[in-house]
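User: quick one, fold this
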Amino acid sequence: MIIIGERINGMFKAVNAAIQERDKATIQDLALKQVAEGADMLDINVGTATEDPVGAMRWLVQTVREVTEVPLSIDSPNLVTVKAGLEACSGPKMINSTTGQDEVLNNFLSLAKEYDASIVALCMDEKGVPVDVDGRVEIAMRVIAKAMEFDVPIDKLYIDPIVLPVKADQTGPGKVLESIKQFTMLSEPAPHIVIGLSNLSQGAVERKLINRVFLAMAIGMGLDAAILDPLDTELIDTLITAEMLMNRTIYSDSFLKAYRQR
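Assistant:
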């Protein structure tokens, strides 16, 4: 399971303030804490913190790179901002994200090829997010075909079925789970499958409980990557246990500790 830490995001008040004040210590502390709690990759998103997202993205990437070499996920829908992040990022990196809209997909896949980056592809296009599973699968198939056309390896492709708040649409989680199951059968090898977990519980009271239960269900369907909060100990315990129950890690009485020492 690939854990992508979500905490360096300008939508969080502390990160927003740190970006505006160019406070390296706060950002670097968040980066190190997430890695210590098991993050394999760190998502970098300037959010709404600044009127200069390009400069902020460049600063964030360089700031994080001063303290860790884990892969960075450059998170923005804006091509120019993403390119600034890729240019500033030494070592492994990922683009988060493109959509399935033809022109957007072409531009971002071209960037992924140029910078040897992995890429997240959202299952939405010019018509928006499909209301059914078939629509998501159809977009995923187009993305895989286009990635092959751009010579982007399948193991660098992360398909995101798009998790929407359960409070807004209670049928959504079931459609996402079925989409994940079908994505695992789209190619050999299959692409990575990723979700932005916290979107699921937006506006809900029992946010952590909802996130934990859905993560375990999604892992059972074949999910192998998630953007989540690695500082949530119970969530990570759930993830580790689900991995063990799916026979992806070896059981021992200390399996929680063993997983964290990977």
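User: anything notable?
Assistant: The mean pLDDT is 96.
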